[in-house]
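Q: I'm writing up a methods section and want to include an example of the input and output format. Could you take the sequence below and give the corresponding predicted structure tokens, formatted cleanly so I can copy it straight into the document?
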Amino acid sequence: MDSKKLMESLSPNERKILPYIEDKEINKICIKSGLDKVSVLRALEYLQNKNIVSLISKKNKIVEIGVNGALYRKKGLPERRLLALLSDKKILQLEEAQKQSKLSDDEFKVSIGVLKRKGFIDIKNGKISLNTNKEEISKKSAEELFIELLPVDYESLSEEQKKVLKELQLRRDIVRTKDENIINIKASDLGKNLLKEGVKTEELIEQLTPEILNKESLWKGKRFRRYDVISHVPKISGGKRHFVNQASDYARKIWTEMGFKEMSGDITQSSFWNFDALFQPQDHPAREMQDTFFINKTAELPDKKIVNAVKMAHEDGVDGSTGWNYSWSEKEAKKIVLRTHTTCLSSQTLARLKKEDIPAKFFAIGKCFRNETLDWSHGFEFNQTEGIVVDKNANFRHLLGYLKEFFKKMGFEKVRFRPSYFPYTEPSVEIDFWNSERKKWIELGGAGIFRPEVVIPLLGEYVPVLAWGPGFDRMIMDYYNIKDLREMYKNDITHLRNMKFWMKS
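A: Here is the clean output for your methods example:
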């Protein structure tokens, strides 16, 4: 666009401030243009988008007067008032000196310290005496001169003044520092050319209205503002959910479409539901402090019938099994933990099911916590997607089919299953997916069919229960090409705004 057309495309405020851009300071432009600071800043941003100016933002540290500092600037610093008193009295008892100077305890103590450090006073036998002449007393101190100087740019201070500032900062609210954003304005070559050609201040019609169109005299022979429809404008970022929540919503939609109902529950759970109901022995390493976060409280256990059934499964076994052959502790089961998996929701759901509710399918998506060593693929907290299918006709092939279908809908075609072991499932598998970035298989979590020792105490009879609980965070990392799990919890707003939406199928 040539300079004439560009000039015609400027808004009234842009034309108002353009002649003053070489002043470089916002406040000066405000005064000369007659516009407020907000209007000037907005107009400058538009000029920058048109490559007429460039705005360089710089943070300056400003030293300003505090509440006590403003008071002392009028009345004098406490040490000055004490010094003035001593110049008349020469020697005073400490208590009498404080009383006559009308200084608070803090002010008096500070004054004594300052004057003694400067060698202006002596203290002996509970008395304070002057140790300098009137000429020295009459001179303004470095502290007084500094206070008179405020406000001031920190960078403009001499080394000596910075030392004074450091001393004053030790005293209550005499000085304060704040960061101030300074914008420097620099005219581009295009901007300089426009200034050379001169800025026309003629009135341009900004928009057409019915009134203008209905009256010829209002538009005929008038000049209209030119609009550049390809001009760059600042990107507007609309509100959106965090990308982790987006992924969770997407997975929730898939499970629902597959006929599953959602389970929910607290992130704090009793050890009974988190471990015992899942046939995990009470001496299992995963129940130790180095793996699990314990809360210093105890929980109420559920119905006695269920508790006794779980206890029997642990001690003696069920359905022909031998159990774990130890004395099960109710005290251990009452310990509260931050849930280590969402499988605790599956155990609670099974306990609530009635015969007429079967067959049934449930899922959960939620946050879990483990005392893990922090690295690129492990964290103290993680998201897990949980699922169970309760059906007399369910089998292992159904389990793999459900999982394959879910992962396919999530966009992960390359999935494998490896034989594994878990205390609460048999048979058991580990689920992996192929990470194309790292060129390796990434473990997601476990799946299997709940053992009779889990199902019978909770349901009252054995029914095949397909179960899974893969981690969700590693899938999110793969989709968003996140190389380190910790990046999911960054508070970088630009990073969050630029994250794409989760859309796989």
